[in-house]
From TrEMBL:
<feature type="signal peptide">
    <location>
        <begin position="1"/>
        <end position="19"/>
    </location>
</feature>
<dbReference type="Pfam" id="PF13568">
    <property type="entry name" value="OMP_b-brl_2"/>
</dbReference>
<dbReference type="InterPro" id="IPR025665">
    <property type="entry name" value="Beta-barrel_OMP_2"/>
</dbReference>
<keyword id="KW-0732">Signal</keyword>
<feature type="domain" description="Outer membrane protein beta-barrel">
    <location>
        <begin position="32"/>
        <end position="208"/>
    </location>
</feature>
<protein>
    <recommendedName>
        <fullName>Outer membrane protein beta-barrel domain-containing protein</fullName>
    </recommendedName>
</protein>
Length: 237
């Protein structure tokens, strides 16, 4: 009897959800939300940053181990028309990348195991300006794509540090510029709008600060080192 009741409840819930999403007869939550000229919110999320290396010579690659970081920030949204919104999403993005060097980079030099590993910790204050392009609202959800540019300040940067890799300091630049592409879905709930989204970010500028020694095994073969990453954000408005 309990099993039958559970199946019945699940069927009712499933049919109700299906009706909300796809039926012509539906109840719209927050029906006037998109009529606001300005709206505000916040986001929480996860990130995974990487480095894209280009080299001076054909040698063994520097391997990048990405870790999962954390995002938090605010949202201001300006409605331009039914399908276009301009968004400013300042946030704090915390991450770490581990660089594993090949012993071949130290050919003819003395080294130990600690020389093959560099931990690159980054705390970005991120300032993206994004154009959001949405479809027509379908019952209580609305897909969209977005694109834009951003700048970031790396609070963990040690660009001005006079020490370099010769004493274990891998240095990165403080100021960064990116372009961003992403997509997501707005879900209109009873009290607020909830939006999961996925975004890729790609740096315009080189981030590495080279060592004093022009023949440094850590930086001499690096032509450019550019940040790239993926964000998964959960927005509440």
């Amino acid at each position: 009897m309990k099993k039958t009741l559970l199946i019945l409840v699940l069927l009712i819930v499933s049919q109700t959800a299906s009706a909300q999403l796809f039926s012509k007869e539906k109840i719209k939550n927050n029906e006037n939300f998109d009529k606001q000229r300005l709206s505000w919110g916040f986001f929480l999320g996860l990130n995974s940053y990487d480095f894209q290396f280009n080299y001076e010579q054909d040698m063994d690659d520097i391997l990048v181990e990405s870790t999962t970081g954390f995002n938090v920030g605010l949202i201001s949204d300006l409605r331009l028309n039914e399908h276009l919104n301009l968004r400013f999403e300042p946030g704090l993005f915390i991450t770490q990348r581990n660089l594993q060097y090949s012993p071949s980079a130290f050919q003819g030099l003395e080294y130990n195991s600690s020389d093959l590993l560099r931990e690159v910790k980054s705390t970005y204050v991120h300032f993206p300006l994004l154009l959001k392009v949405s479809t027509k609202r379908i019952n209580n959800f609305k897909p969209f794509v977005l694109a834009g540019v951003s700048t970031a300040i790396n609070l963990s940067s040690n660009e001005e540090n006079p020490d370099d890799n010769s004493v274990g300091q891998f240095r990165t630049k403080k100021n960064m510029a990116f372009y961003e592409l992403g997509f997501g879905i707005d879900f209109y709930l009873f009290w607020f709008k909830f939006t999961p989204s996925i975004r890729g970010v790609f740096a315009f500028n080189d981030e590495i600060v080279r060592d004093t020694d022009p023949n440094s095994p850590w930086t001499s073969n690096v032509h450019t080192m550019k940040t790239r990453g993926v964000f998964i954000n959960f927005t509440f408005q």
